[in-house]
Specification:
Blueprint lengths: L17 E9 L1 H10 L7 H4 L10 H5 L2 H8 L9 E9 L7 E14 L3 E9 L3 E10 L24 E9 L4 H5 L12 H6 L9 H16 L6 E8 L8 E9 L2 E8 L2 E11 L2
Antiparallel strand pairs: 1-3, 2-5, 2-7, 3-4, 4-5, 6-8, 7-10, 8-9, 9-10
C-alpha cells in the first residue's frame, strides 16, 4: 500500500494509499448523545440510559469520520465542493457502551466519472468496516475506470418479499445542531451563510444523521432492535433541512430490507439496504 506522502499527480494516484491509523475513545455519554441526535426516544431506555445501554452500530461512523476527513485534509480534493455520495457499514461485533477502538483508513479505489472523481475511503476496525464514497467535482478525467454504478439494492435472494407500510421519518429543527456535537462540525450544518455558499437556503442535516434516523424507523417497522443492525448502505441523493418530515418505504424479507427515503416526490436516500440479526 502506498504512503500518503508519495508524489500525487492526479486523483487516481490516491488509490491504495494509507490514510493512517488512529485510536478513538468514547464514553456512555457520547453514545447516548448520538442516539438522541439521530432520533432515539426517551422511552427507549436501552439506547438512552447508561444502566442498560446498547450502542447503535451507526455510532461507529462518527468514530471513523477522521478517515475521509484525512483524505480531504491531505489535498486529494476540494473540500468545499466534495460531496458525500454513498455510505456502507458492515458490523463485525457490537460497540461497547464505552471504550476505545483502533482503526486504520485507506483509499480503497478512485473512480473516474469524467468531470469528477469518486474516492472510496475504507476504515477498518475490530467492530466494523465502513466505506465512504466521496464525489469530487473537477477531479476526474485522469483516464481511470468509471467503477460500479452504486450499492446493491436487492434483498438477498428474496423469495417472500413484503412491502412495508410507508413510515414517517420525523427530523426536528435542532437536529443538525445536536448531531454536530457527535463530531462533524462542518459549518453548512449550522451557519446560514455557509449553507448559502453551497446553494442551500438554510443549513442542512448531515447525510449520516438522515441515514441513522431512517434506520431507527426501519428497525421499528420490521420489529428489529436497531442495535442488531448487521449491514447497511445507501446513496445520498438530495439535501434534508432539519424539521423536514420524510417518508420511508421498504420491501422486507425476513430481517433484511431494501428501502428508500423521500421528501415529497424527491428521494433523499436511495439504493438503501439494511439487514438486522441477533
Amino acid at each position: 500500500m502506498g504512503r500518503a506522502d508519495d508524489t500525487v499527480t492526479n486523483a487516481g494516484d490516491w488509490a491504495g494509499r494509507s490514510l493512517g491509523e488512529r485510536t478513538v475513545a468514547w464514553t456512555e455519554r457520547d453514545a447516548i448523545l448520538y442516539a438522541l441526535a439521530v432520533g432515539a426516544k426517551a422511552t427507549e431506555l436501552d439506547l438512552v440510559h447508561e444502566n442498560r445501554l446498547r450502542t447503535l452500530p451507526t455510532f461507529g461512523l462518527t468514530l471513523a469520520q477522521w478517515g475521509p476527513d484525512a483524505l480531504g485534509a491531505a489535498g486529494a480534493f476540494d473540500t468545499s465542493r466534495g460531496l458525500h455520495g454513498a455510505q456502507r457499514l458492515e458490523v463485525l461485533s457490537p460497540l461497547p457502551p464505552s471504550g476505545e477502538l483502533t482503526m486504520s483508513a485507506s483509499v480503497e479505489a478512485v473512480w473516474d466519472k469524467g468531470s469528477a472523481a469518486v474516492f472510496e475511503v475504507r476504515v477498518d476496525s475490530a467492530c466494523f468496516v465502513a466505506r465512504w464514497s466521496i464525489f469530487a467535482p473537477g477531479a476526474g478525467g485522469f483516464g481511470g475506470e468509471r467503477g460500479p454504478g452504486g450499492p446493491r439494492t436487492a434483498v438477498e435472494s428474496a423469495t417472500h418479499t413484503r412491502p412495508l407500510e410507508k413510515l414517517p421519518v420525523e427530523t426536528f429543527p435542532e437536529q443538525a445542531a445536536l448531531y454536530r456535537l457527535c463530531g462533524d462540525r462542518h459549518a453548512i450544518h449550522i451557519d446560514p451563510e455557509a449553507a448559502r455558499a453551497i446553494g442551500q437556503e438554510r443549513p442542512i442535516l448531515h447525510g449520516l444523521c438522515t441515514m441513522a434516523a431512517s434506520l431507527l424507523v426501519l428497525a421499528r417497522g420490521v420489529g428489529a432492535h436497531p442495535a442488531d443492525l448487521r449491514t447497511a448502505n445507501c446513496r445520498f441523493t438530495a439535501p434534508v433541512v432539519p424539521g423536514d418530515v420524510l417518508e420511508l418505504k421498504a420491501d422486507v424479507t425476513g430481517a433484511a430490507a431494501a428501502f428508500e427515503v423521500g421528501k415529497g416526490t424527491a428521494p433523499v436516500l436511495g439504493s438503501g439496504f439494511a439487514r438486522f440479526g441477533e
